[in-house]
Design goal:
The chain has 253 residues and is of the alpha/beta class. It has helices at residues 4-21, 40-48, 59-73, 75-78, 94-100, 110-119, 149-157, 177-194, 212-217, 227-230, 242-249, and strands at 30-34, 53-56, 82-85, 103-107, 127-132, 162-168, 203-205, 222-225. Strand 5, helix 7 and strand 6 form a beta-alpha-beta unit.
Amino acid sequence: MRSIHDNLQAVRGRIARAAAAAGRDPRSVALLAVTKTHPVALLEQAVAAGQRAFGENHVQEAVEKMALLAGNIGEQRACTLEWHLLGPLQSNKTKLAAARFDWVHTVASEKIARRLSAQRPAGMATLNVLIQVNVSGEASKGGVAPGEIAGLAQAIASLPKLKLRGLMAIPEPTRDEQTQRCHFFGLRKLLEKMQTQHPALDTLSMGMSDDLEAAIAEGATLVRIGTAIFGDRRSKGTESSLAPVLQKTRPAV
């Protein structure tokens, strides 16, 4: 069985090859390790292998992991990590998200954006945010329609504690590379259109374990990789879920 270190090296190799094939500098593509449902022990291995940016879907699960990780690797080292929220954000979680994350990828309404800005603690750097776009038009997917991007971007740009960085999408899963590239091409064109009004935008969060090559070919600057690093996602109640890790790492009394 390959280690987390080996898996990270393999993914970094895929990124480098995809970037080279697209005539891009591999350093222009950031790797975000998606740790949702995976135990803290695997995050520690990823940190030891040099990974610094991590993505979580659920605010509460992420905050618990942040605390455990800080206890295990030390506060100073934990402070060098970067945390990205990738899941849908409900109004009752915006205060916690605003205080604990460095990035939120799934802003899809002005209401959520305003709450994040208002609840970002004083003294913290501005919160990096991405507008989630529903590029494949799936009813089950979050995100705004392409025609709603401009208005939301303008609203976000006016908020003092947020920094709009670009766009994020989770297209409909498919093994067909041409379809993959079509969706990613569409998101890139949307970003280019936005850049005429917001020239500082620099981020396209798109591409996962099964389609990172297509995403990089179409301009991804950040790929979100979970399975290729940590294996299949754990479900609640399995022996690899967060609960046993919480119990194992809780200090003795």
